[in-house]
Amino acid sequence: MHLILIGGGTSSGKTTIAKQITSQLNNQNVYTFSHDNYYYDLANLSPKEIKKINFDHPDAIDSSRLISDVKDILNKQEIYIPDYDFISHRRIQGEFIHNRYDVIILEGIFALYFPELVKLASLKVFVDTDADLRLARRIDRDINERGFTINEVLTQYIETVKPMHDIFIEGTKKQADIIIPGEKKFDRVLIMINGYLKELLG
């Protein structure tokens, strides 16, 4: 079984790249998930306290559980992947993962940050997208999918998203086997990555 990690900044196109890679692996049994599922459950906190949480810091991720679950999947153990609700900030038991996968793909801003995960990966991808485009995509996502106002999105971006990206995310680019320009057409991106996939899976 192989682990593919896809990292990059917020709204850089990681999920889209993961879907495109999966489409290229049509003869393989592939499972894709995000480390966003592993944010800590904050149901015991008040809305005021939750607003103080820096979700763009790696400490916001339950990395011990994440790494343990990835290892279990790679060892063909059957487990439940947690699910996280960004509106209620609850983490619940999510999808059941069977032991018949050939490839697992983990995407998220911290996918290339945790050394233990990086060591487990067969292929490491960084999606490198212009900051202005990423901000525009994040505004659209957070307003339409997570109920934020435009002021809330911009305030969070200025106070935590951008500085945390500069400190914790941008440097993970050096861990990547391949850096994908996220604003390019995805058919060209697939040409770049197809050789890596062929070599990975023989």
How would you describe this protein?
The protein is 42% helix and 21% strand. It is α/β, with parallel strands linked by helices and 202 residues long. A five-stranded parallel β-sheet has the order 2-5-1-6-7. A hairpin with a 4-residue loop joins strand 3 (79-85) and strand 4. Helix 1 crosses helix 7 and helix 5 (131-146) packs across helix 6 (150-169). The radius of gyration is 17 Å and the shape is globular. It starts with a strand and ends with a helix.
Instruction: Give me the CATH architecture, please.
Output: 3-Layer(aba) Sandwich
Question: Order of helices and strands, N to C?
Answer: EHEHHEEEHEHHEH
- In CATH terms, the superfamily is P-loop containing nucleotide triphosphate hydrolases
Separation of termini?
13 Å
Q: Within the CATH hierarchy, at the fold level, what is the topology?
A: Rossmann fold
Query: Which class do the helix and strand fractions yield?
Result: alpha/beta
Tally the structural domains: 1
Radius of gyration: 17 Å
Shape: globular
Number of helical segments with 4 or more residues? 7
Beta strands, count: 7
User: Largest sheet, described in full?
Assistant: 5 strands, parallel
Unreliable residue stretches: none
Mean pLDDT: 87
Beta-strand residue percentage: 15-25%
The percentage helix is 40-55%
The CATH class is identified as Alpha Beta
Which strand order spans the largest sheet, edge to edge or round the barrel?
A: 2-5-1-6-7
